[in-house]
Specification:
The complex is a heterodimer. Chain A has helices spanning about 1-15, 20-40, 50-55, 70-105, 115-130, 140-165, 170-195, 200-205, 215-235, 235-240, 245-250, 255-275, 285-295, 300-325, 330-350. Chain A is an all-alpha fold. Chain A has a single domain (about 25-40, about 50-55, about 70-350), classed as ABC transporter involved in vitamin B12 uptake, BtuC. Chain B is of the alpha/beta class. Chain B is built from nine helices and twelve strands. Chain B has helices spanning about 40-45, 70-75, 90-95, 110-125, 140-150, 170-185, 195-200, 220-225, 225-235; strands at about 1-10, 15-25, 30-35, 55-60, 60-65, 75-80, 155-160, 190, 205-210, 215-220, 235-240, 245-250. In chain B, strands 6-7-8-3-9-10 form a six-stranded mixed sheet, with helices on both faces. A four-stranded antiparallel sheet of chain B has the order 2-1-4-5, covered by helices on one side. In chain B, helix 4 (about 110-125) packs across helix 5 and helix 5 packs parallel to helix 6 (about 170-185). Classes of the chains: A mainly alpha, B alpha/beta. The interface between A and B is large, with 35 and 46 residues.
Chain lengths: ~350, ~250
């Protein structure tokens, strides 16, 4: 009896922390708040109550009447909503992919573009824009970017594997750098040969959501949803990998297959995000690290919260990008770095648990 | 029960282990000794599936090659010489990672896993440490936590690579006593050890390796002879036997 009660007491202490209720609520509140701000702020301000009632009026059987004018309705649901939803999807995906890459490569500086996704997507988009493929259809640029990103990562993975499976992740990262450098060279060459489209290419590379529509959401969402589910399911395994390849192997994990699966999922999601938003830096580093510093270094917390906080973070950043110089827009990548870096510096300095 | 038959391990062009054979029963503690580079660690790494090998390794009668990675991890727990101990993981979280071979790839631990981890913590008298981060522990405490993770794995065979490196003498003795008590629970323990006196005091049987081959095997008083140590360690020693055991004392030349 006494033994049982001791065991019960010990068992009650044996918990993996994961996401505590408090932090979970904080993150969700942050996301909801960001969405409301994203939908409400702009040349035509719409109140939170108006957004809620309008949303309810679109649901059947409730018989709620929207208080918004038809112009406001159109602005809300045809302009801002797709933009906000796309920013949330892209932000969540980039932050989640960043945390997954950091876990699987055990490198805190790994980002979603580590294995050449950015360079590949840039080359694909540049080819599509410069060679006029985009003339016929707007849809071809994201597709070309997606294909370019995937080709880059497949090349990097193949090169890394052939160069040194035994050397572990180092060879893979170097392969990514090599492929990225090569693709950037080609991209720059193509760009220089087609100076007439230079501005379009440049605008795409800088990234942004100014032209976002529901079609972009439809293009990117399936990849992002599937990729997110796969990565979220790996949250415990990523903690096991933090013990190193050998110890993870001796605990029964097939490290190589795990790495391939995580890289494939993170890449597909990142490529889809990049293809509809261009290159938005810093999200995949700043969001996971802020969570590590504030909440926990366990991937059970980092992976889950990165998705939620990353979504809210990019929605807010997009609001800044389109309001600071209104009616002009700043490239969102400039905003993520300009506000993200100092914010990160503050977190870094004030956190007690910096390693 | 662990049985090695003509184990040969090659890597990067050289032979690390050459036709080594030995067997250990449940409750037995075998210590591998030998000079640096003799192949001690390679034997352990081959057994737990980290190195390819020739020959046969049987664990509880099962051919290692026929076991999947997870199945193998349920039979053998391995503690490397320098285990990774992420500073911010709590003791409980770290010990729960030892349950990995029993948890589905995409799932998280259940009540049974928490109960096994709690039992391991109690077994090593670590229950009060459950919520402490690993970074706040001393070397001796950390080594106990690492052992607890291996115990939580609930494998009948325990492989320990230099379990007392970086510990002071008192902490070395505590850890070795602890391993000895685990052996009495019925585990088969195979470890490497560089301190020959401690090896002689705790092991039931010693296996002396030199350049990958088993050159002596048997009870400590037989293996730890001045002649053996001179021949294979290139060391001048005096070996003292008395009622308290066997002592290997280095002599200056």
């Amino acid at each position: 009896m006494a033994v049982d009660s001791v065991r019960a007491r010990t068992e009650s202490r044996v918990r993996a922390r994961g996401v505590s209720r408090g932090w979970g609520l904080c993150a969700c509140a942050f996301l909801v708040g960001s969405l409301v701000v994203g939908l409400g702020v702009g040349p035509v301000a719409i109140s939170a109550g108006g957004i809620a009632e309008s949303a309810l009026s679109h649901l059947p059987l409730l018989h709620v009447h929207s208080p918004l004018s038809s112009a406001q309705e159109a602005i809300l649901w045809q302009l801002r909503a797709p933009r906000v939803v796309l920013a949330a999807l892209v932000g969540g995906m980039l932050a989640l992919a960043g945390s997954a890459y950091q876990g699987v490569f055990r490198n805190p500086l790994a980002d979603p573009y580590l294995l050449g996704v950015a360079a590949g997507a840039g080359l694909g988009a540049t080819l599509a824009i410069s060679l006029g493929l985009a003339g016929g259809s707007e849809q071809i640029v994201p597709v070309a970017a997606f294909v370019g990103a995937t080709v880059a990562v497949v090349c990097a993975y193949a090169l890394g594997r052939s160069a040194g499976a035994a050397r572990g992740t180092g060879a893979l990262v170097l392969a990514g750098v090599t492929v990225a450098a090569f693709m950037t060279a080609i991209q720059t060459f193509v760009q220089q040969q087609h100076t007439d489209t230079l501005q379009n290419v440049y605008a795409w590379l800088l990234g942004g959501f100014s032209t976002a529509g529901w079609s972009d959401v439809v293009v990117a969402a399936p990849y992002i949803v599937v990729s997110s589910i796969v990565l979220l399911l790996h949250r415990r395994v990523l903690d096991v990998l933090s013990l190193g390849d050998e110890e993870a192997t001796s605990l029964g994990i097939d490290v190589r297959r795990t790495r391939l699966l995580v890289v494939a999922a993170a890449t597909a999601g990142t490529a889809a995000a990049v293809s509809v938003s261009g290159l938005i830096g810093f999200v995949g580093i700043i969001v996971p690290h802020t969570i590590r510093l504030l909440v926990s270094t366990s991937y059970r917390a980092v992976v889950v919260l990165s998705l939620v906080v990353g979504a809210g973070f990019l929605v807010l950043t997009d609001v800044l990008a389109r309001t600071i110089l209104s009616p002009a827009e700043l490239p969102i990548g400039v905003v993520t770095a300009f506000f993200g870096a100092p914010f990160f510096a503050v977190v870094l300095r004030t956190s007690k648990s910096v390693r | 029960m662990i049985e090695l038959r003509d184990l040969t391990v090659r890597f990067e062009g050289h032979v690390a282990v050459r036709q080594a054979s030995f067997a250990a029963e449940p409750g037995e503690w075998i210590v591998l000794i030998g000079p640096n580079g003799a192949g001690k660690t390679s034997v352990l790494r081959a057994v737990c599936g980290l190195l390819p090998f020739e020959g046969e390794i049987l664990l509880d009668g099962h051919d290692v090659r026929r076991l999947g990675r997870r199945e193998l991890a349920r039979v053998v727990a391995f503690v490397p010489q320098h285990p990774a101990t992420p500073a911010e993981l709590t003791v409980a979280e770290y010990v729960l990672l030892g349950r990995t071979p029993h948890i589905g790839y995409f799932s998280t631990e259940g009540a049974g896993d928490r109960s096994a981890a709690a039992a391991a913590l109690e077994r090593l008298e670590l229950d009060a440490f459950a919520a402490r981060p690993l970074g706040s522990l001393s070397g001796g405490e950390l080594q106990r936590v690492v052992l607890a993770r291996a115990i939580a794995q609930e494998a009948p065979i325990l492989l320990l690579d230099e379990p007392t490196t970086a510990l002071d003498l008192g902490r070395q003795q505590q850890v070795l006593e602890l391993i000895d008590s685990l052996r009495l629970d019925g585990l088969t323990v195979v470890s490497t050890m560089h301190d020959l006196t401690l090896a002689g005091q705790y092991a039931e049987r010693l296996l002396l390796l030199d350049r990958g081959a088993v050159v002596a095997e048997g009870p400590p008083e037989q293996v730890l002879s001045a002649a053996n140590l001179s021949a294979h360690y290139d060391a001048r020693v005096r070996v003292v036997h008395d009622d308290d055991g066997i002592f290997v004392l280095p002599l200056r030349g």
